[in-house]
Structures are given as structure tokens and as C-alpha cells.
């Protein structure tokens, strides 16, 4: 009997193909609607491998209830939706898709930064709703990007790609990270500073933090109050690293000038949420890595991670290095 593999999203046949000869495959048929927790738990209990997405909650009880499970291939670089320590304890590989999405995600960070600073979405609405009657010297004026100071919080692979883009805009780049990266400082001409110093000096603050115990709620009222009133906050990291009520307050009080958001505490965020209704907020639905090429590459890598484990090999990319075959 072939091992059972459960895939929590409807992904293209051609991507699943390499698994076909190795496993019996069951794919959740809900399209983009996520699999309900009870079904996921039931399916996981039968599976040797799971293909998951970042909104599938893989908790301890699911893992403990799945004795055959050997690998969970998350189609994301982040893996805060998975209880990694429980998985490690049970010898389950937790796989992610690092590297291949860094450029695409950096592009999105820059797209959000530019559209917030230059009021692209507002301008688009302005025309579409028929408000454009005359040209004006101060019509839809925004903020410059070039020659400004960019602060990157969380200098991983994506941060480096953001810094590279910023160089083309003649920006000065500051970064804050858990550990200093002297090589990156040299090659990309970026300057390390404390979190507080970065907030005080930056015109654009780009948050790329993963969600951990240390990063949870890191951007709170204290953080926003340190930022310049002209500053724009970009979040392409994780929603729970930001106190959204404090962000809303900071925007309403004019403590900061705008925000470009790809991630939220609660996803999907409601269109009734007050943040979404502010003109100075540009929001997109967690699409950092969402180019056709990159999403296919991520799906293929997640499938390959499963294939490797089914063939008795180590996955291409996994995060819990204590797990062995
Ligand atoms: C997206 O947020 C990812 O972690 O890949
Ligand atoms: C993700 O690739 C990161 O390290 O930022």
C-alpha cells in the first residue's frame, strides 16, 4: 500500500505529478477556501506527509494525533503556523521554501512603499470615481523615496534584497537584526543600529520580522511614537508583530504618515476594519511572494521536500535540524 499524502490546497496537477508514483494523494477540494480544522486533523492522522499553507494551523494535538507523519511541507518561508517543537519531538521534518521567494517579496515591499509614498492607490481611485477635473500644483502630492532613509527590521534574505533595491534609489539604508551581519554591511552598504535608533532616523520602516516569542507585538505605541511624523511603515513580515490598534492610533494622531500592509493580525482582515478605511493605508491580501513564477517554484519545492522524505532522503529545505532520517 502506498503512503498517504494530504495536500491542503487545490494545486495544479503538473506540480503534484512527481508524487503520483510514490504516494496515494488526497487534495482538499475547497479551492482557496481553507480546510476546516477537523478535516485536517482527520486527514493528518492517516498521512505520512502533509502539504500545507501558512493559514493551516498545525498544532501539537494534530501532530500527536498523527503517528505516521514524517514531513510537513509548508508552502511558505515562514512556519509560525506550525508547532515546530512538537514536530521535532515526534521526528517530523518541518519544511519551508526559503530563498526562492526573496526577490519577489522584496519587489512587493518596494511596491507597497512606493504606492504608499506616492499615493498610487488614492490617485487611481480619484480618477476611477470621476474626481479628476483639473491639474493642480499640490494635487495628490506625496513623499519622495529617493535619497531618503530606509530602515529594515529583520535583515534576512528578503531584507538583503530590499536593501539592494534601495541602493538604486540612492537611499541610505539602516537595519536592525537579532545578530549583526558585518558581511552584508560591507557588500550592501547598510548600517546596523538599535531598534530605537532605526525608528527615530528612518523615513521608511520596513518590517520583515518572522513571528516568534521575541518579535510578537514589537511594533507597539512606544515604537510608533519614536518614528518621524513623516515616516511610512511597511509590513511584509507577520501581522502579529504589530499592535494594530497602536498603529491605527499612530496614523490617526499623525505620529506617522502612512502604512503599506501585506500582513495582518487576523487574516483575512475585514474591509470594515478602521485601518483599511484610512486613505493613507495601502493594504494587500498577503501576496508578498505572489508572482506566478515564484508561487510555482514554492509549490514545486514543497512537493520536492515531500518526495525526498518518501525516498528516504533529507528534504531540500527544513528548519528543525535535530530531526534525522
Ligand atoms: C509568506 O508570508 C511566507 O512566509 O512565505
Ligand atoms: C526570508 O527568506 C528571510 O530570511 O527574510
TrEMBL record:
Q: Which Pfam family, any one, appears in the UniProt record?
A: 2-Hacid_dh
**Which EC class does it fall in?**
oxidoreductase
The answer on whether this UniProt entry bears the keyword Transit peptide reads: no
Keywords of the record, alphabetical order, are:
Oxidoreductase
PROSITE patterns in the record, alphabetically?
Answer: D_2_HYDROXYACID_DH_1
Query: What Enzyme Commission number does this protein have?
Result: 1.1.1.-
Boundaries of each D-isomer specific 2-hydroxyacid dehydrogenase NAD-binding domain copy? 110-288
User: In the record, what terms sit under GO molecular function?
Assistant: oxidoreductase activity
D-isomer specific 2-hydroxyacid dehydrogenase catalytic domain residues are: 5-320
What family classification does the UniProt entry report for this protein?
Belongs to the D-isomer specific 2-hydroxyacid dehydrogenase family.
Identify this protein by name: D-glycerate dehydrogenase
- Originating species: Chengkuizengella axinellae
Amino acid at each position: 500500500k502506498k503512503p498517504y499524502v494530504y495536500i491542503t490546497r487545490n494545486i495544479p496537477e503538473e506540480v503534484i505529478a512527481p508524487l503520483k508514483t510514490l504516494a496515494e494523494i488526497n487534495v482538499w477540494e475547497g479551492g482557496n477556501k481553507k480546510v476546516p480544522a477537523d478535516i485536517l486533523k482527520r486527514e493528518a492522522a492517516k498521512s505520512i506527509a502533509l502539504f500545507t499553507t501558512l493559514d493551516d494551523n498545525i498544532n501539537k494535538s494534530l501532530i500527536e494525533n498523527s503517528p505516521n507523519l514524517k514531513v510537513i511541507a509548508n508552502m511558505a518561508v515562514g512556519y509560525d503556523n506550525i508547532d515546530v517543537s512538537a514536530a521535532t519531538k515526534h521526528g517530523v521534518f518541518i519544511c519551508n521554501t526559503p530563498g526562492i521567494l526573496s526577490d519577489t517579496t522584496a519587489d512587493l515591499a518596494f511596491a507597497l512603499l512606493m504606492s504608499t509614498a506616492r499615493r498610487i492607490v488614492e490617485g487611481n481611485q480619484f480618477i476611477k470615481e470621476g474626481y479628476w477635473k483639473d491639474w493642480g500644483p499640490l494635487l495628490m502630492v506625496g513623499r519622495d523615496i529617493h535619497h531618503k532613509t530606509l530602515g529594515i527590521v529583520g535583515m534576512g534574505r528578503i531584507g538583503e534584497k530590499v536593501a539592494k533595491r534601495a541602493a538604486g534609489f540612492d537611499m541610505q539604508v539602516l537595519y536592525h537584526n537579532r545578530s549583526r551581519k558585518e558581511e552584508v554591511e560591507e557588500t550592501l552598504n547598510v548600517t546596523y543600529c538599535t531598534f530605537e535608533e532605526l525608528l527615530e532616523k528612518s523615513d521608511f520602516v520596513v518590517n520583515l520580522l518572522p513571528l516568534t516569542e521575541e518579535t510578537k507585538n514589537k511594533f507597539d505605541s512606544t515604537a510608533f511614537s519614536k518614528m518621524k511624523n513623516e515616516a511610512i511603515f511597511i509590513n511584509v513580515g507577520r501581522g502579529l508583530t504589530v499592535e494594530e490598534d497602536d498603529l491605527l492610533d499612530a496614523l490617526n494622531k499623525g505620529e506617522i504618515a502612512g502604512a503599506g500592509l501585506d500582513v495582518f493580525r487576523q487574516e483575512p482582515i475585514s474591509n470594515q476594519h478602521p485601518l483599511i478605511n484610512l486613505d493613507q493605508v495601502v493594504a494587500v491580501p498577503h501576496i508578498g511572494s505572489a508572482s506566478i513564477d515564484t508561487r510555482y517554484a514554492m509549490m514545486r519545492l514543497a512537493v520536492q521536500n515531500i518526495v525526498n522524505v518518501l525516498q528516504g532522503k533529507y528534504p531540500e529545505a527544513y528548519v528543525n535540524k535535530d530531526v534525522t532520517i
